[in-house]
């Protein structure tokens, strides 16, 4: 058991200080190549909030930036939570506090407009990120078992084309940048042999062969009580029962 216990908080963008942003970039740069402070800050400025992890000393050791997107698909309104720059310091890999914080965050968004579909729009340049989908959701796309339904594919194409114009490739579902916007350091991009036996990892590698150079696989999952697996669903129910509500700007 680790001596340090992580604490998480959903922090509105306006409350992120310059010192916080510097600390976040330092964590980010320890794990990714082809990153710069200017690009990091520009990406951060687009977001609504940040899920911040701190250790027992109060130091930032992980984070995930979040943005609520709204689009219309086949004449119907759709909301999507876009998760941007995300990292947990390697010393805390395997801990699930970031996942718990994210579940609380999306639970509040779901409760605000339960009649408007809410999705997770996730871009993945690493198998660890992709594995959050089978961990949290009953159904998610693309996956190794079922084709993506027509409506979900339209949602995914609409979101990816709007967020990454000129870079999204609908035929492959991959976002390819002219220049890397960030890629895992080589020793972190290596995949252990035991992971290669996982069918979800195999699928990710087939569909995003350029992941080590920063290509992103566009992914989608509906955020709803019926689609959340036990771990995520339990947190979602607890958050709703407690009346947790995220008060952020759209």
Helix percent reads: 25-40%
CATH superfamily heading: Gcn5-related N-acetyltransferase (GNAT)
Report the count of strand segments.
10
| Integer tally of domains | 1
Kindly state the mean pLDDT as a whole number?
90
Span from first to last CA?
A: 40 Å
Structural class: alpha+beta
CATH architecture: 3-Layer(aba) Sandwich
The CATH topology:
Aminopeptidase
Describe the structure.
- The longest helix is centred in the middle third of the chain and has 16 residues, at 97-112.
- The protein contains nine helices and ten strands.
- The strands form two sheets. It has an eight-stranded mixed sheet with strand order 1-3-4-5-6-10-8-7, with helices on both faces.
- Helix 3 crosses helix 9.
- The protein has one domain: Aminopeptidase.
- Strand 5 (76-88), helix 3 (97-112) and strand 6 form a beta-alpha-beta unit.
- 35% of the residues lie in helices and 24% in strands.
- The protein is an alpha+beta fold and 250 residues long.
- The radius of gyration is 17 Å and the shape is globular.
């Amino acid at each position: 058991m680790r001596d340090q216990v992580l604490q998480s908080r959903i922090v509105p963008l306006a409350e992120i200080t310059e010192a916080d942003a510097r600390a976040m970039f330092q964590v980010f740069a320890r794990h990714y190549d082809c990153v710069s402070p200017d690009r990091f800050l520009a990406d951060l400025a687009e977001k609504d909030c940040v899920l911040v992890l701190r250790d027992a000393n109060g130091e930032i050791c992980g984070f995930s930036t979040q943005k609520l997107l709204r689009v219309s698909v086949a004449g119907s309104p759709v909301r999507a939570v876009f998760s941007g720059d995300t990292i947990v310091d390697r010393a805390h890999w395997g801990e699930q506090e970031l996942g718990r914080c994210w579940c609380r965050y999306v639970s509040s968004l779901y409760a605000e407009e339960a009649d408007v579909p809410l999705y997770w729009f996730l871009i993945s340049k690493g198998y660890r990120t992709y594995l959050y989908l089978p961990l949290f959701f009953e159904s998610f796309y693309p996956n190794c078992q079922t084709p993506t339904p027509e409506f979900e594919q339209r949602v995914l194409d609409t979101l990816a084309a709007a967020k990454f114009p000129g870079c999204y490739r609908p035929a492959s579902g991959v976002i390819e940048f002219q220049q890397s916007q960030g890629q895992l350091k080589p020793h972190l991009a290596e995949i252990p042999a035991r992971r290669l036996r996982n069918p979800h990892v195999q699928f990710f590698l087939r569909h995003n062969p350029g992941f080590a150079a920063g290509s992103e696989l566009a992914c989608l999952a509906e955020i709803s009580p019926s689609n959340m697996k036990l771990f995520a669903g339990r947190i979602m129910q607890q958050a709703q029962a407690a009346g947790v509500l995220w008060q952020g700007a759209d």
